[in-house]
């Protein structure tokens, strides 16, 4: 087949970017306004919302190569299942590389840190109470995930971008039947070894009503796939167990090597992070306060939100420990989807939601103890793990600040 030059160029450009063409403003008219309760219908709504966000992001990007972020250089983050086996393997190889690389943190600061991968885990443990249920939650995790992606690329030769875990897909397929978690060599490893006689995990405490969550289909060490021999070195700090108790190893920064455990729990994925949960989160919450609270689960409401839904659907250790959760490499695919969900929501009202009105909250967990409001000027610091100290305003857009990426 022969192609003329302009067709060939056009094909090349579209293959490189795989971006939908900018749509006319009429696209808004077809956007769903009410979340469908039927998950198949909600799933197509999520597709529509995602395509709309892509078209807006695409039309806001210039084709001028002089702009720092333009159509030609924008990074595209993709869903795990849409990657080829080769791309999946390149990603997990890079994660294994980070786990084999020397830490930047000296053991005088984080005694248990043994690798570059652990630098990120230690940083998250250290800042946990200042980055969840705070004004910085979404932006902090956006930056954290971005810097992790950059480390994979710059320190481990990875040439792709951060993939994400679309929970709505695994809610429909079942976790162990999904390409992310089927335990094959091209997955993020799968379930843990089956442990019998497990009871519920019980969340709540601190005066809140108990929230029992069912155990999953594994519970023991991950037995196959790229991370079957992985060591979790840090934590736990507040690990919820399947006998209703919680266990900790002090501040979690000591050296405590153990296997990676998972307890994949379809019931949690399906209850808190199905397609309807995602679409409803995006469409029903019009301000950032509601959006981020519903996403994390309003304490005492009986919901753990899509954020908790993903974390507790992984289960295991460190999956069920808010502090140490980045110790499971799946964390970054989960937070890729958290970021994608925020990105879609932001693009529905870009001006408002990427500016000062797109921030709500303070610098402490549910403002306890009370602290100053988070603003566009609030600094975000990942310590020695990665990056420079940036401000909230640098993190509000994935294309207008130092970032240059979108989601497909
Ligand atoms: Cu976190």
UniProtKB/TrEMBL annotation:
Gene3D superfamilies named in the record: Di-copper center containing domain from catechol oxidase
Signal peptide: 1-18
Matches recorded under InterPro entries: Di-copper_centre_dom_sf, Tyrosinase/Hemocyanin, Tyrosinase_Cu-bd
UniProt name for this protein: Di-copper centre-containing protein
Originating species: Polyplosphaeria fusca
Keywords: Metal-binding, Signal
Gene Ontology molecular-function annotations: metal ion binding; oxidoreductase activity
All copies of domain Tyrosinase copper-binding, residue ranges: 132-149, 328-339
